[in-house]
Amino acid sequence: MTIANAIEACRRKLQAVSDVPWLEARMLASYVTGLDASAVVAYGDNAITEDRRDQLFALAVRRAAGEPVAYLTGVKEFCGLKIAVDRRALVPRSETEELVAAVRRDWHNRRADILELGTGSGAIACALAAFVPDARILATELSADALELAQANVDRLGLGAQISLSLGDLFAAVVPRREFDVIVANLPYVGDDNADALDDSVRRTEPRIALFAGADGLDVYRRMLPAAPRYARAGAMLYLECAPFNAAALADLAREAFAGAGVSIERDAARRQRIVVIRTGGKTA
Fold it and tell me: How distant is the alpha carbon of residue 61 from its chain centre?
């Protein structure tokens, strides 16, 4: 069997679960063969060994059962970085790249002390370290298992000089009275009432604690925001990822926590409301 034949067989297996079955089949073939994405196409007429074919088909069966490709390959590209991922943390999302881009836009050539709450795999912290080279970053995480994964990513990418990790729930993992120029949070924001909107594979395989936050998805932000002003330096900015359905409510919570601050909602590339930005020295946009 050729590589191309094996990819086509995988594509057929994945049609029922994937919007991009051919792309995912190529990604799995690339992982199994060690060839990059273009090479698996360029060398498609080459034979694939029986062992690698069997490995590829076994991965396709797992993907067809709903397991994310990133968990199968152990890696997800995020902001140009290869982030190691597994079931200890959420798979980094493309929309979260826009959260990083918003921070980069405002701080890329400025020295900044950055706090990231709920780092998961460490993807955001690692991307910020790469894009804001003068930043010093503290990333916190409630799950010891996820923090272990984040530390592995920080170490593998050689970003330990910029990033420190701390175990604990939100600001409990931060030294009291320490202040930051930037606070970034991609906390759980899926509402219990909106669970059906999630892909079935996400509900079944990714950590529930990192997804759901009460009926409207804002329970964790309700705990976080009242405490945030104590950790925000004068002129600080906060960047909070959310869902389109609860962005307005999150903005209202931000205004309650930061009286007089500028609070705006930014849209993602698909024009969906996705990021609430708090400018402690600015006016409401």
Answer: 25
Q: List Cβ neighbours of 149 (8 Å cut-off, separation of 6 or more).
A: 84, 85, 86, 88, 89, 120, 121, 122
* Fold observed for domain 87-279: Rossmann fold (3.40.50)
Q: Is 3-65 assigned to CATH 1.10.8.10?
A: yes
Residues of the chain with CATH 3.40.50.150: 87-279
| Residue 260 token pair | 């007089």
Crossing angle between the packed helical segments 144-156 and 123-131, to the nearest 10 degrees? 30
- Amino acid residing at 41: V
What is the pLDDT, as a whole number, of residue 285?
41
Query: pLDDT tens-digit profile of 186-238?
Result: 999 888 877 766 677 777 778 888 888 888 989 999 999 999 999 999 999 99
- CA–CA distance, 274 with 285 (Å, rounded to integer): 15
